[in-house]
Amino acid sequence: MKPESFLTPATAIWKLGSSSEDRALDAFAIAPAAAESKSALTDMPAIAAWPWILILAGVHGDEPEGVWLVEELRTRWSTHYPFAKAGVILWARANPDGVHRVQRWNARDVDLNRNLPTEDWTAKGLNPRYPPGPAAASEPETRALLRLLADAAPRAILALHSYSEYQINLNANDLADRGNLTCAWGESLAKVCGYPVTENVGYSTPGSLGTYAGSERGIPTITLEIERDLPKETVLEKFLPVAAAAIAFWETRVK
Question: Does domain 4-251 have CATH number 3.40.50.1010?
Fold first, then answer.
């Protein structure tokens, strides 16, 4: 039988602010099952003795696949978290106004995945589909994400999106070395879901999380593009094991 700590993990809701329409920007943190973590989990984002892995979805409000997956992970893992060394931060609705409206952009008509303060950020949108906002980090959702990254310092990030060209997209400075951690992580997920591993999405993405965290800051960052319009049941069946594999990869690297 597994120890009791596996069955009752320590959890916390991290309140990161509110959207422009006053919807909560809440992330859900689950500490690893080690008994000492129970008293060490804070109720605000913070660096911990264990590595945090961030899984977020709902950056684009018309991509429900990732939202379904992260909400199901929260339901399951809040009562039975099967990892002893790595914690997880689950953020299902990073764009709650967009999710509510079933639209890609936030309530201020900004593509949040073009609003991060990357070195190549520009107010001149490269495509009408991707409006970057009036200034880098102009949006409350973006500022909440920046706060989370700064305060919790996640070891790795799995961003869930959906796209007709489904893929495991790597975001890193140097992908020439196929042995680097981002590549190895991506390949481990590909073994579970059979998706192709790609090194770029095929077009420029200034202001994106992949550029900000992966390319510019060296945080292992993967954008998992789930096949668009899959039924909810199929998404959960296929990608719950992928999410577990994403944590397990880092669990084995904790000393």
Answer: no
**pLDDT, tens digit only, all 255 positions of the chain:** 344 444 578 999 999 999 999 999 999 999 997 756 666 788 999 999 999 999 999 999 999 999 999 999 999 999 999 999 999 999 999 999 999 999 999 999 999 999 999 999 999 877 889 999 999 999 999 999 999 999 999 999 999 999 999 999 997 654 544 448 999 999 999 999 999 999 876 677 899 999 999 989 989 999 999 999 999 999 999 999 999 999 999 999 998
The answer to pTM > 0.85 is yes
Give the orientation angle of helix 181-193 with respect to helix 232-251, to 10 degrees.
140
SS3 254: coil
Tell me the β-bridge partners of 160.
Answer: 224
Interatomic CA distance for residues 38 and 226, integer angstroms? 34
Q: Pairing relation of β-strands 221-227 and 167-171?
A: antiparallel
Q: In what order do the strands lie in the sheet with 221-227?
A: 11-18, 24-30, 87-91, 52-56, 156-163, 221-227, 167-171, 197-198
